[in-house]
Each structure stands twice: as C-alpha cells, then as structure tokens.
Write a structure and sequence with these properties.
Layout lengths: L2 H4 L6 H12 L29 H15 L29 H9 L24 H13 L8 H8 L9 H11 L6 H6 L13 H8 L1 E3 L4 E3 H6 L3
Helix pairs in contact: 2-9, 3-4, 3-9, 5-7, 6-7
C-alpha cells in the first residue's frame, strides 16, 4: 500500500478503522496528490479529510453495498445499462460513474424523475455531497422499507437537533428512519454527538466511509469488517 492509500493524517481516530476495513475490500480510494517534486508516491494533503463529490459517494455506496451483499444476489443493486434512458441530463451513458448513478436512481435511492421528482433533472455529479443526501441515499438500504412519515417536531424530540426546521421534508424522513437504527445510526457513526444536523454541510471522505462501513437494521446487519474477516 503506497503512502497515498494509507495516509490518514488528520482523520479522526474514531473513523480510521472504517476506512481501513473498506480499503481491505478495495472499495474506496483516496484522491492522490503529488509533492513539489512531482513524486506520485508522496501526498501533500490528507485525502480523506477533503469533501467527497456526489459522483464519488454514489460509486462508493453502490460498490460497498454490493461487496457486503456479494453472496446475496437478490439483495444486490443492479448497475445501469448504457442503453437505458438516463436518469439525469448531466450524467450521460459515457460518464465513468453512469452505471452506479443510474443504478441507484433506478432503484429509487436517488431522487429523480423515476421517483416522481420532476425537478430533479440534474445530478450535479461534481458538486460536494452534503449531509442530508448522505443520509437520504443510504438509509433505505439499511431499513429495506419506505421512509416513515414524520414532522420536524418529532425529529427534534428524537435527535435533539436545534436546526430541524432547515431540513427538507424528504431528508427529514430519512433522518427519522436513521434514528430507528439505534446505536447503528449512520449519523452517529459519522458525526458523533451533536445538536446540529447542518443539512447543507459538505461531507468528508472519512465521514462517508464511516456511513458505508455497515448496512442493515438495528437487529440485523453486516459490516465491512465482517466481510474482510470471512473465510474464502
């Protein structure tokens, strides 16, 4: 493993094991940087502390889920086919992440015209991923159920967030479902204890890795560590 892959400088200690487990499965990759001497083996920044793009998270989400459910074909996500009608105007079939993004949209995990969101015509693949989308795209793969109905007041009572009123209705439902995961809630694993959700705050690669480390309900689930340790 070269320095660009193993460098976790600046990553909170609580998140480092999640990254290592996912790297063991060859699911996630850092953004390599070079030194002033243009040496490709030396990083000048800690890549996992930088924000993750929407396209990169979509690919990680697709790959990590399918790696954890590798032995369960009926639970795996299906990749989009280049001949399919594109879900988004700005993700063409020639896009390197088309298969994952299209597959997630066709599975109803990313809001699009397929899910009745007529205004979601663009995916904005190179924009930073924000917290509300981090949770919105992931939680249905844990609960395997429709998102619950809720209110800002109910989410405030459950989570204790001070800024619940700033969260859009659909992500709010995902946050309510995440609370039902108990100790395995994605938000807790990625961000620890906080009284602010901050829906539009950019997500780091380390935080995204923490969320993708486990899939499943409060009582049944699998982690990247479980898969890495399983006998061949």
């Amino acid at each position: 493993m070269d320095q660009a892959t193993s460098d976790l400088t600046g990553v909170p200690a609580d998140l480092q094991s999640y990254i290592r487990d996912l790297q063991t499965l060859d699911i996630i990759e850092p953004v390599a940087t070079v030194s002033a001497e243009d040496s490709p083996q030396t990083t000048t920044t800690a890549p996992f502390t930088t924000s993750i793009t929407r396209r990169e998270y979509a690919q990680w989400l697709f790959d990590s889920h399918n790696a954890i459910y590798a032995d369960d074909p009926g639970d795996r996500l299906r990749a989009g086919n280049p001949s399919d009608e594109p879900a988004f105007q700005d993700v063409a079939a020639t896009d390197p992440n088309f298969a994952a993004i299209q597959g997630l949209a066709e599975a109803g995990l990313i809001p699009s015209a397929f899910t009745g969101n007529s205004t979601a015509v663009n995916f904005r693949p190179d924009a930073p991923l924000v917290r509300e989308d981090l949770i919105l795209w992931k939680v249905p793969l844990d609960s395997r159920a429709a998102l619950p109905t809720t209110t800002p007041e109910a989410v405030t009572t459950a989570w204790g967030f001070q800024d619940t009123a700033t969260i859009d209705p659909l992500p709010l439902r995902a946050i309510a479902a995440d609370f039902q995961l108990g100790d395995f809630a994605n938000f807790r694993r990625a961000f620890g204890y906080t009284t602010l959700f901050r829906p539009d705050k950019a997500v780091t690669r380390a935080e995204a890795a923490a969320v993708l480390w486990r899939f499943g309900s409060q009582t049944e689930g699998q982690t990247a560590a479980d898969i890495a340790e399983a006998p061949d």
